[in-house]
């Protein structure tokens, strides 16, 4: 069984890459980095050896190889990434590998928050990219018109490039975030008369006029 050594350890020395010269905006990276708008607590990895959120790293940790996500039973992997608002996606950033553990490609499915392996064969990806065997972070620019109102993004890695498992170090997303006008997940709050006294809850803008008693 090749699946009993997944504790986030990696023998590759890359500590010199952990911090680089890009420290703009308190290490948030590019102005359109969506990291602050990913609902990291609810990121899900299917057939993964760890929490999916471990590859959703802050900008200054994007080259860190000590923490990674690896596929478990075979070399397929699904990563479901919800956002805290509506996103107009521009690019996917991906660091994977090494070598044959690099996925052959990544398929993107917007707004499929519950997609699992049973659904994959029934749905065509909106876009997919071949993944190079490269230890650097690759940027894949999406067709923005097809990713203009995204509340969640599902990534499907169908196979490795020859290894028994697929390994992902970092997933980053660039684009424009806007607050949701309504969110069915928190509609329970809309009936509370004291909503305005609470700390702002994401997605309730515009709903106060409907809760007056």
Estimate the global geometry from the Cα principal axes. Answer: globular
SS class: mainly beta
Number of helices: 1
- End-to-end Cα distance, whole Å, is 62 Å
Question: Biggest β-sheet: count, sense, barrel?
Answer: 8 strands, antiparallel
What are the segments in which pLDDT stays under 50 over at least 5 consecutive residues?
A: 1-26, 187-213
Extended strand count: 8
Q: How many domain regions? A: 2
Query: Helicity, in percent?
Result: under 10%
CATH-assigned homologous superfamily of the largest domain? PITH domain
- The proportion of residues in beta strands is 25-35%
How confident is the prediction overall: mean pLDDT? 81
The succession of helices and strands, N to C, reads: EEEEHEEEE
CATH arch. level architecture of the largest domain: Sandwich
CATH topology tier name of the largest domain: Jelly Rolls
In quaternary terms, these chains amount to single chain
Rg over CA atoms: 19 Å
Classified by CATH, the class of the largest domain is Mainly Beta
Domain PITH: 23-193
Protein name: PITH domain-containing protein
Region (Disordered): 1-33
Biased composition (Basic and acidic residues): 1-24
How is this fold's topology laid out?
Layout: E1 44-46, E2 69-70, E3 77-96, E4 105-110, H1 117-120, E5 127-130, E6 138-141, E7 150-157, E8 167-178
Antiparallel strand pairs: 1-3, 2-8, 3-6, 3-7, 3-8, 4-5, 4-7
Q: How would you characterize the overall build of this protein?
A:
Strands 1, 2, 3, 4, 5, 6, 7 and 8 form an eight-stranded antiparallel sheet that branches. By secondary structure, this protein is mainly β. The N terminus and C terminus are likely disordered. The chain has one helix and eight strands, in the order ββββαββββ. 2% of the residues lie in helices and 28% in strands. The chain has two domains: 152 residues, Jelly Rolls, CATH 2.60.120.470; 35 residues, no CATH class.
């Amino acid at each position: 069984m090749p699946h009993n050594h997944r504790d986030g350890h990696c023998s590759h020395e890359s500590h010199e890459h952990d911090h680089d010269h890009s420290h703009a905006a308190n290490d948030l990276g590019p102005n359109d980095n969506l990291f602050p708008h990913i609902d990291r607590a609810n990121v899900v990895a299917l057939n993964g050896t760890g929490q999916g959120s471990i590859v959703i790293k802050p900008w200054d940790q994007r080259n860190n190889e000590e923490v990674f996500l690896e596929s478990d039973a075979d070399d397929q992997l699904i990563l479901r990434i919800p956002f805290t608002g509506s996103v107009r996606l521009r690019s996917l950033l991906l660091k994977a590998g090494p070598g044959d553990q690099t996925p052959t490609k990544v398929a993107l499915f917007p707004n499929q928050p519950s997609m699992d392996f049973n659904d994959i064969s029934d749905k065509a990806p909106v876009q997919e990219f071949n993944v190079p065997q490269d230890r650097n972070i690759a940027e894949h620019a999406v067709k923005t018109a097809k990713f203009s109102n995204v509340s969640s993004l599902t990534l499907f890695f169908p196979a490795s490039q020859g290894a028994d498992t697929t390994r992902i170090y970092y997933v980053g997303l660039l684009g424009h975030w806007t607050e949701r006008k309504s969110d069915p997940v928190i509609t329970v709050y809309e009936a509370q008369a004291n909503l305005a006294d609470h700390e702002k809850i994401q997605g309730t803008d515009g709903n106060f006029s409907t809760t007056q008693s």
